[in-house]
Design goal:
By secondary structure, chain A is of the alpha/beta class. Helix content of chain A is 37%, strand content 20%. In chain A, strands 3-2-4-5-7-6-12 form a seven-stranded mixed sheet, with helices on both faces. A five-stranded mixed sheet of chain A has the order 9-11-10-13-14, sandwiched between helices. Chain A has a two-stranded antiparallel ribbon with strand order 1-8. The radius of gyration of chain A is 19 Å and the shape is globular. Chain B has one domain: Thiamin diphosphate (ThDP)-binding fold, Pyr/PP domains (Rossmann fold, 3-Layer(aba) Sandwich). The chains are: A alpha/beta, B alpha/beta.
């Protein structure tokens, strides 16, 4: 298998789907030939597919998503880029009240095949308006799917599945993942939604993590292995639908659960996963569930402040040791 | 009022029939509401019939419309079946949305009704998106996007129309200026008299028409549709009109001066069109009465159909969330 970056994997998915299906098109701020996307995911695509299908937009997040909704319900498969995940707040009505609800409100008449790609996450010192992980907002909206790929393989396969599917998907990327390399097959493949992946097998404790936290969990697992603790790392890959079965089956094996996420603890991703296990598999737990998440603050700017709020390997190791 | 000579009789009669259909439908909804047979709330279109009928008469079956919380008239004018509209309003399984949408969310994708959204102004970028879809698919359809004066103060108005303008999308933005956003009169919400003036900010034509003159609306919409089909882009049409009833349910609309209401009632679009048709020897009084009777019978049938239809099974609430 070839090795490519997460960024290249996303670009390959877009390119291959645009070649395969003429109804697929891209729109977003500075995604075209002049810039290639703020994180360069769409670089080179305007040159291949033209400005019509790789469409630069004005700075109008609400209309970017609204236009994508209108195109989706009339036969197209738009992939909209929102330059930073934080800016989804500007488009929240179109995402949460329109894209997610049209099919239901209209009794199943509408099909809304559209994808919003957006980078979340901190660690690059750009403060409170460009660093949040807001996946939990979208998990709370029935009608949306939420993808959270952590590797190039998952990014490409999930994006292809998202584009081919008939439901609106908020496709969460992470800024620190773009340069990460990983193996990706030459041949066409998709990663189905709702199927978790065990990123590392282990016996003593289950660590559920998403996006960049998967990599921190894997590092923590390596360190813990040297100390004789065997960690299983489960990556849900999509938060909606959530592969509860895979998480519970890992918990049944290990009897212990740590949930890690780069978002605020209150009503966040970790809360939902912990509650699910508590509700459906408490009898298999040998210890309390631990959550590793951010304190309930905005993301601060200064490096020592930001490092303090974003969970790291040490926090994961500490949580594991508290229950093993 | 514009002369009627340039349209065939059948078209004029059809337009009249459609306006009466909307009027009688809405009056029936009000009556059922008063009898406590309609769950939730209602926003009646009474008084604005010339806008929906004028615009939709200029459209083809494969053209699209987007609608609003005050949307019964738009859907009926585009060709929706009144039986299924009424059933939806009553929350029945046979309604357009199987009882999941209700009065504020009627849709019929088979005739291009892309649905009513009840968030004020939210349909504007969606209509632009349908326009972009038409352009990318190389079709000559157009989209008519209905919204009110209140919606023109939303950010979506600016963002959506600007995007449609820069990409020259085939969208007719139809602002139904009925002078009040709920209870807030236009003069309290903007410094301009004509919302159509805002078109200049986007570099598209802005047209003010008498929204109670169905033929004036039709002519403006036809011109805008032809412009869209030719690939020349969007148009903003402001239709000056008035709702005969309050904003919703039993709102007595006490915020509107009596003289203002009386002046607008005197400009009732159906009354004016009826008089015009008689004066122009298109229809006789007897023919008018015959049409009114036929439409009333159709509405009665719709009520019967809706009343006799079953409610959805409760667990159907779990269906249609995802495709």
């Amino acid at each position: 298998m070839k090795k490519i970056t997460y960024r290249e994997a996303l670009r390959e998915a877009l390119r291959e789907e645009m070649r395969r299906d003429s109804t697929v098109f891209l729109l977003g701020e500075d995604i075209g030939r002049y810039w290639g996307g703020a994180f360069k995911v769409t670089e080179g695509l305007a040159e291949e597919f033209g400005d019509e299908r790789v469409r630069d937009t004005p700075i109008s997040e609400s209309a970017i998503v609204g236009v994508a909704v209108g195109a989706a319900i009339t036969g197209m498969r738009p992939v909209a880029e929102i330059m930073f995940g934080d800016l989804t707040a500007l488009a929240m009505d179109q995402i949460a009240n329109q894209a997610a609800k049209l099919r239901y409100m209209f009794g199943g008449q509408a099909k809304v095949p559209l994808v919003f790609r957006t980078p979340f996450g901190g660690g690059v010192n750009i403060a409170a308006h460009h660093s949040q992980c807001l996946e939990a907002w979208f998990m709370h909206v029935p009608g949306l799917y939420v993808a959270v790929p952590s590797t190039p393989y998952d990014a490409k396969g999930l994006l292809k599945a998202a584009i081919r599917g008939d439901n609106p998907v908020i496709f969460c990327e992470h800024k620190l993942l773009y340069p990460i390399e990983g193996e990706v097959p030459e041949e066409d493949y998709v990663v189905p939604f709702g199927v978790a992946d065990v990123k590392r097998e282990g016996e003593d404790v289950t660590v559920v993590a998403t996006l960049y936290m998967v990599h921190k969990a894997l590092k923590a697992a390596e360190i813990l292995e040297a100390e004789g603790i065997s960690v299983e790392v489960v990556d849900p890959r999509t938060l909606s639908p959530l592969d509860k079965k895979a998480i519970i089956s890992s918990v049944k094996k290990t009897g212990r659960l740590v949930v890690v996420s780069e978002d605020c603890k209150t009503a966040g991703v970790t809360a939902e996963i912990a509650a699910t296990v508590a509700e459906e598999a408490i009898d298999y737990l040998d210890a309390p569930i631990k959550r590793v998440a951010e304190p309930d603050t905005p993301i601060p700017f200064s490096p020592p402040l930001e490092q303090y709020v974003i969970p790291d390997e040490k926090a994961i190791i500490k949580a594991v040791k508290e229950i093993v | 009022m514009i002369l009627t000579a340039n349209l065939p009789k059948e078209k004029l009669v059809e337009m009249y029939r459609m306006m009466v259909k909307i009027r009688l439908f809405e009056e029936k909804v009000f009556e059922l509401y008063a009898q406590n047979l309609v769950p939730g709330t209602i926003h009646l279109y009474t008084g604005q019939e010339a806008v929906a009928v004028g615009v939709c008469s200029a459209l083809r079956k494969d053209d699209y419309i987007t609608s609003t919380h005050r949307g019964h008239g738009h859907c009926i004018a585009k060709g929706a079946d009144v039986k299924r509209v009424m059933a939806e309003i009553l929350g029945k399984k046979t309604g357009y949305c199987k009882g999941k949408g209700g009065s504020m969310h009627i849709a019929d994708f088979s005739i291009g009704v892309l649905g009513a959204t009840a968030v004020v102004g939210a349909g504007i970028p969606i209509a632009a998106g349908a326009g972009l879809s038409i352009k990318l698919r190389r079709k000559d359809q157009v989209v008519a996007c209905f919204f009110g004066d209140g919606a023109s103060n939303q950010g979506t108005f600016h963002e959506g129309i600007n995007m449609a303008a820069i990409w020259q999308l085939p969208v007719i933005f139809v602002c139904e200026n009925n002078l009040y956003a709920m209870g807030t009169r236009q003069s309290l919400a903007m410094r301009i008299e004509n919302i159509a003036d805002r078109a200049a900010a986007y570099g598209i034509p802005g047209v003010v028409v008498d929204g109670n003159d169905v033929l004036a609306v039709y002519e403006a919409a036809l011109k805008a549709a032809e412009r869209g089909r030719r690939g020349e882009g969007s148009t903003l049409i402001e239709c000056k009109t008035y709702r005969h009833r309050g904003h919703s349910r039993v709102d007595p609309a006490k915020y509107r001066p009596k003289e203002e209401v009386e002046a607008w009632l005197a400009k009732d679009p159906i009354k004016r069109f009826r008089e015009k048709l008689i004066q122009s020897n298109i229809l006789t009084n007897i023919e008018i009465q015959q049409i009114d009777k036929e439409v009333a019978a159709e509405i009665e049938k719709a009520v019967k159909y809706a009343m006799e239809s079953p409610y959805p099974a409760p667990q159907e609430a779990l269906e249609d969330v995802y495709a």
